[in-house]
């Protein structure tokens, strides 16, 4: 380890054993014969972290990000390889790790605090500050098993940050809880960074990764697939995710009794089909259907979701008070004029055709992620997920 490094990971390997049933495990213990399968989850990972550096880990679900963080913090032991660190690393990993559900929040502060390296006197000294940060009020005296996941997160975060770590580990857990508390945690983390603290960060929110981190590693099936600036890593990861996202194609109906098939759907903007829309300019979502017999009383709708699968905007013909009538069999196109006032980024389109009064009835198709598309904002005068029209600010003196 060099003098500026606080963490040095070398040749880390970790596999998990999988047994078909508890009986297989018992059989192996009794007979000594192998009755398990092994899956390599971390495969020869090496990297180092300098003091004050912020490093993000990106990767698809199951890529090994959380396992790597647990190896670094010592929650898990590697099969081989080393984790050298010369500072205290704390953070939020699995919600509730190190909490006894039957003890109160206050009692758990002592248990969890000791687990992450504080001694009793240090915890006594910081108890009031930890309880104030967690904002649990009288709940602090109730057993942790009665807490919501957001409350567990508050308590875990409050303890972890008061351990004066040199490096703080943030897994997706930060996305739990109410937005005001999340903002408070993020503000804390920014101050922690400004004061020279290091961060290891796992998030599927690439905007947050770019905002919080300078460097990033993309993990793919437990191996390092890319290491570089957070900006470049996010671009590569985004491109990879878009490639692997469902593309427009003939959809097969999921509903055997459906008499209407979704053939295709595509965006149209500036007189041509578009996979990249320009924010704030009129576009059209065209949905092409094959109708086998005359139908009415249906609603065709769409929902735009962001990459975290959060609903951003949806509408349907019923909400728009447009009767959807297919008087004869044939191919139909339904066009929705839409002005996508969205921030630049990747989005996914959900399409469904169902009863006009009840979306669970007469379902003809229900395509959760029919296609991915991008939105660009060439005249950037804003940031964020939505685009609100603005006029130049007016400065006036009282
Ligand atoms: N304790 C465990 N026992 C067995 N398998 C495990 C254990 N922990 C993780 N795994 C497996 O290891 C693989 C990697 O999981 P991990 O949680 O590290 O991925 P991840 O990149 O953090 O995914 P996500 O983005 O979904 O959180 C997965 O296949 C997971 O099922």
TrEMBL record:
The membrane-spanning stretches of this chain are none
Classification via Gene3D superfamilies? abc- transporter (atp binding component) like domain, P-loop containing nucleotide triphosphate hydrolases
Q: Which GO terms describe its molecular function?
A: ABC-type transporter activity; ATP binding; ATP hydrolysis activity
This chain belongs to the protein called ABC transporter related protein
- Pfam families hit by this protein: ABC_tran (PF00005), Wzt_C (PF14524)
Domain ABC transporter as annotated: residue spans: 26-246
Tell me which InterPro entries the record gives. AAA+_ATPase, ABC_transporter-like_ATP-bd, ABC_transpr_TagH-like, Bact_Polysacc_Export_ATP-bd, P-loop_NTPase, Wzt_C
Say which family it is in: Belongs to the ABC transporter superfamily.
Keywords, alphabetical: ATP-binding, Nucleotide-binding, Transport
- Source organism per UniProt: Thiothrix nivea (strain ATCC 35100 / DSM 5205 / JP2)
Q: Which PANTHER family match?
A: TEICHOIC ACIDS EXPORT ATP-BINDING PROTEIN TAGH
Q: What GO cellular component term, any one, is given?
A: membrane
User: In the record, what lineage is assigned to the organism producing the protein?
Assistant: Bacteria, Pseudomonadati, Pseudomonadota, Gammaproteobacteria, Thiotrichales
């Amino acid at each position: 380890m060099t003098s500026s490094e606080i963490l040095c990971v070398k040749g880390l390997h970790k596999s998990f054993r999988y047994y078909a049933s508890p009986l297989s495990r018992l059989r192996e213990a009794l007979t000594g014969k192998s009755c398990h399968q092994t899956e390599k989850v971390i495969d020869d990972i090496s990297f180092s972290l300098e003091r004050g550096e912020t490093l993000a880990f990106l990767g698809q679900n199951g890529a090994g990000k959380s396992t790597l963080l647990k190896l670094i913090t010592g929650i898990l032991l590697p099969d081989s390889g080393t984790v050298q660190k010369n500072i205290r690393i704390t953070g939020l990993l699995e919600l509730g790790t190190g909490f006894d559900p039957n003890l109160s929040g206050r009692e758990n502060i002592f248990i969890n605090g000791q687990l992450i390296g504080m001694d009793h006197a240090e915890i006594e000294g910081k108890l009031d500050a930890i309880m104030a940060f967690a904002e649990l009020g009288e709940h602090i005296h109730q057993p942790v098993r009665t807490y919501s996941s957001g409350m567990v997160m508050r308590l875990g975060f409050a303890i972890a940050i008061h351990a004066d770590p040199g490096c703080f580990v943030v897994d997706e857990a930060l996305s739990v809880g109410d937005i005001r508390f999340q903002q408070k945690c993020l503000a804390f983390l920014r101050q922690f960074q400004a004061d020279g603290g290091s961060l290891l960060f796992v998030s599927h929110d690439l905007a947050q990764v770019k905002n919080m981190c300078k460097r990033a590693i993309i993990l793919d099936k437990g191996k390092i697939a890319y290491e570089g600036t957070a900006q470049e890593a996010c671009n590569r990861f985004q491109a990879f995710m878009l490639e692997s996202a469902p593309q427009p194609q003939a959809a097969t109906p999921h509903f055997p009794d459906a008499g209407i098939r979704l053939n295709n759907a595509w965006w149209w903007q500036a007189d041509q089909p578009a996979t990249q829309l320009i924010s704030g300019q009129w576009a059209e979502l065209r949905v092409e259907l094959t109708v086998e017999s005359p139908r009415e009383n249906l609603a065709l709708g769409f929902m735009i979701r962001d990459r975290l699968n959060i609903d951003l905007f949806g509408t349907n013909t019923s909400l728009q008070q447009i009767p959807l009538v297919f008087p004869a069999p044939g191919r139909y196109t339904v066009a929705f004029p839409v002005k996508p006032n969205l921030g630049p980024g990747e989005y996914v389109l959900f399409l469904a055709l169902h009863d006009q009064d009840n979306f669970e009835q007469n379902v003809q198709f229900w395509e959760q992620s029919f296609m991915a598309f991008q939105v660009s904002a060439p005249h950037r005068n804003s940031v964020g997920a939505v685009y609100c029209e603005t006029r130049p600010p007016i400065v006036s003196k009282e």
